[in-house]
Specification:
The chain is of the alpha/beta class. 29% of the residues lie in helices and 20% in strands. It has helices spanning 7-20, 38-46, 61-73, 104-107, 129-136, 181-186, 217-226, 229-238, 253-262, 275-287, 320-327, 348-352, 390-394, 426-432, 434-441; strands spanning 27-31, 53-58, 79-82, 87-88, 94-98, 112-118, 141-146, 150-155, 158-163, 174-178, 193-196, 246-249, 266-269, 292-295, 310-313, 340-344, 358-363, 367-372, 375-376. α1 crosses α2, α2 (38-46) packs across α3 and α14 (426-432) packs across α15. The longest helix is centred in the first third of the chain and has 14 residues, at 7-20. The model is unreliable at 405-410 (pLDDT under 50).
Length: 456
Amino acid sequence: MSFKYRDYQEEAVRIGLEVLRDDKGRKAVIVAPTGAGKSIIIGGIAKELTDGKVLVLSHSKEILEQNLEKINYYGIYPSVYSASLGRKETEGNLIYATHKSINYEAFRDLNIKYVLIDEADFSTKSGTVLHKLMTKLKIKNLLGFTATPTVTKVNQDGSYFEMMTKDKKSLFNEICYILDIDYLVKNNYWSNLKYYTPFAVDKNLLKLNSTKAEYTEESQKEFYDDNGTADKIIEILKRKPLERNALVFVPSVYDAEYLANQIRGSVAISSRTDKKLRKKYIDGFKSGEIKIVFNALLLGIGFDFSELSLILDCAPTNSFRNNYQKIGRGVRTHKGKEVCDIIDLCGNYEKFGDIRNIKIENVENYGWAIFNNNKLITDVLLDSKEIITKEDLKNGIKPKSTQFFFNDDVDGLVSMKNGKMKDIPLKRLYFTKRYYLKWLIEKEFKFKPEDAEFER
């Protein structure tokens, strides 16, 4: 079957093939926003690789099914290795699989030559099962795909997002192609988005967890209840035209199930939902039989429904990635769909702004970074009010998460000579257990309860 690429898809396929066919071996990432058709790009690359065994990996069953659907457009029906689909086939030249299903014993004698990984940011960190497997299989040419090329890092000051290729131990070491959101918007490849914030909310109730990466479940519940969010959701949805669909993000399973019981014809989907029932609900939503889905953070990634025209965001988050993935469910275009309305009842729009302003750039003297309206997103501590711009980076001003006391003269490789941290380099202690160093030099230092073991 012939298939006509969009211009950027054709370029991404060409570059992807160059990476995978490089005799020296390359492990690179293609960055393409939600709604850009990554499944089509993956299929376009996979079908051209006929000189060796190809493995295409997906993070979940749902994403695997989407990727299979697109490769089928080309009249190609690969082997499938996925426990969730009840198939463990390795005979064909092309194998589509899920991360958690594959293992070294089943794949070690297959002589896999090329590997393509969708949602690659989930697998880039050193030490992950997939990272170890790729090393054991001696994969030389590796190509990843993601809309959000970051990993979450934690140091003594808290959490922050780091570009996934920045870590020397990362599975991927380069970004070979980036498609800007702005390009999709200007060329009408993204649906128009309209944001609404109909109610003021009090975000002072939200508290960060111990890693400072996300709000605690307890504070989210208190925020949701004290702001009367459930009643506001019901009020808005009762005024919704009957023919219009809506996806509603709420903080917890309880909230989703409670609301589904209040509004006739709606359903709740969460991690507790039986897989067969979940599929029935999603199919019903896409067919138009079900008009409202209440979701407890399950349909944020890999849920592809181009007709979606209304999102209610009622689950506060401290993560730009989570926010991007949620709103990204509404960006796909569809005939007759003029806009996707985003109704924010939790303050995420105030915190993150319009996702169409996200841009990934390679800044001189700094490297790859993500910005929103010129404000740096990566490398900035998630609990910080610090504002770093592109111009700041060019002028040598760096975010606090990247600042440390060690320079070319003092590299931090000197190790502790005794005590609990014997033989551990000072530089490592600075980033992982800074409270221990503070205890050594500060006379009145007080340990936090979780760090009390070092007081003894």
